[in-house]
């Protein structure tokens, strides 16, 4: 071999692995098909493995090809991240932080945190993304998010989790519900009701925690609707389709005509966590962790 592998070889391979069709891949890359074939052969010669199985009709990845595709995808994503950070530094910024959050974080820590970051580290640029718990954890693992506010204690290996804010649960009922006239409302009064809950996909540990509330009250709820969206829950409750149990902080910020009853006598509490990837070298992460560490009131129960 009298040639060296360059970044373009890996980029060409990635596109071909996505298309599994030489002509379509060549069109995406704006190169001639013979040139693409030559680049792929050079890559196979360099690594001394067959990356593709070819016949007149199909192209498929070998096991080595599948592995290389995963690694190249990860590498190119990392190079994109480097470009973003370089642009931030060139513009006088410490870094660009991609921050994920669930809706309830907006009602608790997130607005305060954004204010403090702006006050203490104005050279950190923020990119905000409202996402579900599981999606955020997956993106953290792939280093496509830098920080995530999640409502789950099930943090995968390689990720760090810091409890930020603990709070009570609340019942959500229609404003004309009979329980509102009760001198001492209790969950047992609702055991024949239909319940609308956050789905297990929202967070496995959160779902199990909510189900433990019903277990303690010795009944299995009739769950008729599940969703990952708080506003959907509130609108369904308003329409009389059921009642719900949610983190108490969600009573703030949503202008929906429903009633909240805080369940402050329950032993169960729900906790908001900040999660990040221990291998993520974004220079803005330590600054934000330091701001949070010096803000002790955020870690107390509400």
Automatic annotation (TrEMBL):
The keyword Ribosomal protein does not apply. Keywords: DNA-binding, Transcription, Transcription regulation. PROSITE patterns: HTH_LYSR (PS50931). It holds the Pfam family HTH_1. GO terms for molecular function: DNA binding; DNA-binding transcription factor activity. Residues 5-62 form the HTH lysR-type domain. The keyword Transcription regulation applies. One of its GO terms (cellular component) is protein-DNA complex. It comes from the Bacteria. InterPro entries: LysR_HTH_N, LysR_subst-bd, WH-like_DNA-bd_sf, WH_DNA-bd_sf. Belongs to the LysR transcriptional regulatory family. This is Ben and cat operon transcriptional regulator. It comes from Sphingobacterium thalpophilum.
């Amino acid at each position: 071999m009298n040639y060296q592998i360059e970044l373009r070889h890996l980029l060409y391979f990635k596109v071909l692995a996505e298309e599994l069709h030489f002509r379509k891949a060549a069109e995406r890359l704006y190169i001639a098909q013979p040139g693409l074939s030559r680049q792929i052969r050079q890559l196979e010669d360099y690594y001394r493995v067959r990356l593709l199985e070819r016949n007149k009709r199909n192209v498929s990845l070998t096991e080595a090809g599948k592995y290389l595709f995963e690694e190249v995808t990860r590498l190119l994503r990392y190079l994109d991240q480097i470009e973003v950070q370089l642009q931030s530094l060139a513009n006088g910024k410490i870094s660009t932080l991609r921050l994920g959050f669930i809706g309830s974080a907006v009602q608790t820590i997130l607005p305060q945190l954004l204010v403090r970051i702006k006050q203490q580290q104005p050279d950190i640029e923020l990119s905000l993304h409202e996402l579900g718990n599981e999606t955020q954890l997956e993106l953290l693992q792939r280093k496509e998010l830098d920080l995530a506010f999640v409502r789950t204690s099930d943090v995968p290996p390689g990720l760090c989790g810091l409890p930020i804010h603990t709070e009570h649960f609340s019942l959500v009922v229609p404003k004309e519900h009979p329980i509102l006239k009760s001198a001492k409302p209790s969950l047992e009064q609702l055991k024949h009701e239909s319940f609308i809950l956050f789905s297990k996909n929202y967070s496995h540990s959160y779902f199990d925690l909510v189900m433990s509330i019903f277990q303690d009250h010795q009944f299995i709820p009739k769950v008729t609707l599940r969703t990952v969206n708080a506003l959907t829950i509130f609108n369904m409750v308003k329409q009389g389709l059921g009642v719900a149990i949610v983190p108490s902080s969600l009573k703030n910020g949503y202008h929906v005509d429903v009633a909240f009853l805080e369940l402050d006598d329950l032993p169960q509490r729900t906790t908001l966590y900040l999660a990040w990837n221990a291998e993520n070298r974004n220079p803005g992460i330590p600054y934000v962790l330091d701001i949070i560490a010096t803000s002790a009131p955020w870690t107390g129960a509400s």
